[in-house]
Every structure is written in C-alpha cells, then in structure tokens.
Amino acid sequence: MESAKEFKKVVDTVSTLLDEICFEVDEEGIKASAMDPSHVALVSLEIPKLAFEEYEADNHDIGIDLEAFKKVMNRAKSKDKLILELDEERNKLNVIFENTGKRKFSLALLDLSASSVKVPDIEYPNVIMIKGDAFKEALKDASLFSDYVVLKADENKFVVHAKGDLNENEAIFEKDCSAIISLEVKEEAKSAFNLDYLIDMVKGVSSGDIIKIYLGNDMPVKLEYSIAGVNLTFLLAPRIEG
Known about the structure:
The chain is of the alpha+beta class. The chain is built from four helices and 16 strands. Helix 1 runs antiparallel to helix 2.
C-alpha cells in the first residue's frame, strides 16, 4: 500500500472500538466486521484490492490483536509504504514498512473464526452527507456539556444538540451551508446517541473527508466514510431515554 501513514488512521479508529478483528481475505480484497465488546456498536471495513499498489491473495481468515497492530502502525513514517504478508508456517502476519530500508514486525495471529456479523440491511428515511471535519468539531463541542448527543434532521437542516444539567450546545447545519454536501430527508428524525462512541467512530476523519450519515427515529445511526481507499461503516444503537 502506498501510504502506511494513511492506513494507520484506519487501525487507530477501529482499535478504539474493538480489541480484535478477523480479516476475511480473498482474491478481491479484505473485509472485516465485528461488534464492540459491549454490543452497542458495529464496525465494518472493506479494503478492495484497488486500494493496494499490488495485491495477491487467496482465501484466509486472519485474526489480529488490534492493540498490537496499532502499536506497530504508530511506528509508520510519512513516506513509508506498507506491506502486509501472511507467514502461514509461523502463523504470523508480517507488517513491513518500506522506505530507505525495510522494517519488519511479526504479529502472532489469533484463532478467531470469521466474523459472522454483517451490517444489517436497514432502509433509512434520511441520508446526510457532511464534511467530516465539521461533524467532528460539532461532536467535540457537544462533549463539553454532555455524554450523549441528539442528532436531528428535517428537510432544511441537520442539527447536533447536546444538553447537560445546566448548559447546552447546538450545531446547526442549514441545507445550503458549505458543510452540507447533500441533505435527503423524507421524514423528520430525532435520536440520541452515546457521544464517546461517535467521537471514536470519526477519529480517523480529516479535512477533505466526507461522512455519510444515515438517520431515522429510534434506529441505529449509520456512518460511512473512506480513508486511503478503505471503506469504513459504523452502526451505533440509539440511547434509550430512561
């Protein structure tokens, strides 16, 4: 892969939500999906073979300890290429950074059966496409006063609202504002979500990235975006008001 540094963002983001993951590898690319340990969030990633400069693979399930993978990826430098290589004899995944020389790390594989968790095929009434950094900043603002956030959408605007015991905060994105790429709303929606999870889900987003938000009433929110040719999908269950 051309940029190890870009792929590091993917590993950083996924490892905030999951401890381990099973990469399902075939000739077309790599897929993985898993629930977080508390079963509140679902994480799915898809790396088509086009995301790589070179790709050669057959069918394998590769179980990875994400904490160890993250530590290795943190050693990536800006000009490093990333090579992932399965060593079946030693049951290791070799993570190689190639630049002026080669630096190789060998990670022991975990015995994880291929994750049967699939992203459920939910029909959503509303789809918001928003600039990633604008949504990320709105979530950070919300975290000043609350540990949960209410996402609201109508045909004119998308709103991120947080209310604490005394203080509240609101980010309003009108349909024609520069942060909104598109706002397709068939029915007004309002749902509350755990803020820490949402902030973790957009950890890898930087300026220029676009997030697709699927929103309905009392439905899981779905977020989709891409980094370094890797397609990431997250689902988060709504917070039930007690």
